[in-house]
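TASK: fixed-backbone design
INPUT:
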């Protein structure tokens, strides 16, 4: 599976700051200290309703992570999956009377187009669950053969008790885990499981559903969590720098994935930091596919909204905050884009070197994008009020906003 084309990231003078970011596992800020190549895995879409503003907000957060690292003169190895076979996708395809694989391809193509328009930096590897199956099967067999997994009526389950560090990502108690498991794709009430929280690694073939050869596992398809583990271990290895996704992935997805990887390798932790973006609401409710209250990036683009304004609307909210999409949020972003473009269109302006450092400091402090936007606002207001004599300033601002915030002026 191919990703989308990369937009050029301007090189800035000076040196970026090391990123301090909130780690769900420890509950506080940690300073990322990658080697020459920073490694990040971000969980991708299940392609049946792409790309809504909630998706865009999440990928915007981790795009900023990459930009901060690039500004420190590091390379970035970014991996993202696509869950192109899963129950929700199959249910949507059946509801709409279309082939599930065609639906997945159509929505993944749309996702690529939206990511390109929003100038999100692409992953080095963009991998579908289906193409990852040959690498998933041996991992499930290894877990089963090591006693960390067991069979139940042809399905294979992971035993959470096989990992002594289970629970250290989300830090939830068993009761909270059980509730979330039921809400987020688990089956805690299935009879015969050793522990209600045990997640499925391999689902035996069901009539009328797609299945693949699972060698000694029999025909079937992979569970949700092992998909990301196989891809991450294959391309990044253990102990990569950041595992990212929406806050609804902390449990069960990232918790279970970490335990799968730790049971497979005997190493801890799977990722040095677990970073989670907040949820976006519409009309007072979390924006979600099940509720159908989605605002789509593609629809906004078709309506003539500049993708740079969409991106500014996302940047106006701290990545960890839960917030609500409104017409006013978008209008504020459109107005801000207009002010910034007017400011950098003039032949000279106030000195901008201090502004670049303000943006760097804001983003290094747990991706404080609203703080970075406020700094640019101040420079643009000063430009509007009295201008300046630095002929290079507008270009410096334009390049910095592009490189660090992903907004082309």
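OUTPUT:
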């Amino acid at each position: 599976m191919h990703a989308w084309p990369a937009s050029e990231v301007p090189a800035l003078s000076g040196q970026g700051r090391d990123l301090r970011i909130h780690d769900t596992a420890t509950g506080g800020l940690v300073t990322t200290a990658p080697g020459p190549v920073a490694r990040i895995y971000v969980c991708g879409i299940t392609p049946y309703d792409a790309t809504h503003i909630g998706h865009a907000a999440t990928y915007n957060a981790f795009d900023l992570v990459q930009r901060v690292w690039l500004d420190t003169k590091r390379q970035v190895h970014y991996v993202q999956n696509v869950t192109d076979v899963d129950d929700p996708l199959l249910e949507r395809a059946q509801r709409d009377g279309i082939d599930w694989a065609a639906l997945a391809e159509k929505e993944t193509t749309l996702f690529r187009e939206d990511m390109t328009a929003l100038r999100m930096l692409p992953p080095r590897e963009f991998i579908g669950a289906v193409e990852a199956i040959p690498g998933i099967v041996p991992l499930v067999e290894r877990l089963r053969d090591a006693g960390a997994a067991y069979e139940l009526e042809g399905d294979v389950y992971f035993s959470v008790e096989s990992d002594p560090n289970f629970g250290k990502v989300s830090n939830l108690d068993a009761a909270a885990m059980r509730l979330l498991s039921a809400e987020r794709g688990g089956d805690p009430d299935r009879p015969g499981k050793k522990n209600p929280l045990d997640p499925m690694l391999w689902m035996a073939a069901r009539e009328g559903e797609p299945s693949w050869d699972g060698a000694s596992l029999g025909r079937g398809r992979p569970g949700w969590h092992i998909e990301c583990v196989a891809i991450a271990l294959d391309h990044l290895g253990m102990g990569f720098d950041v595992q990212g996704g929406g806050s609804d992935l902390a449990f069960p997805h990232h918790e279970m994935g970490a335990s799968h990887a730790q049971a497979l390798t005997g190493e801890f932790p799977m990722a040095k930091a677990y970073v989670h973006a907040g949820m976006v609401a519409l009309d007072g409710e979390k924006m979600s596919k099940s509720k159908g209250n989605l605002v789509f990036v593609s629809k906004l683009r078709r309506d003539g909204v500049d993708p740079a304004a969409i991106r500014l609307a996302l940047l106006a909210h701290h990545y960890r905050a839960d917030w609500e999409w409104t017409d006013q949020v978008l209008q504020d972003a459109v107005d801000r884009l207009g002010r910034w473009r007017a400011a950098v269109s003039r032949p000279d302006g106030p000195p901008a070197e201090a502004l670049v450092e303000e943006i760097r400091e804001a983003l290094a402090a747990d991706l404080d994008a609203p703080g970075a936007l406020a700094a640019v606002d101040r420079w643009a207001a000063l430009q509007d009020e009295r201008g300046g004599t630095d002929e290079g300033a507008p270009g410096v601002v334009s390049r910095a906003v592009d490189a660090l915030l992903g907004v082309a002026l």
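COMMENT: Residues 20-286 form a domain with the Rossmann fold fold (CATH 3.40.50.620).
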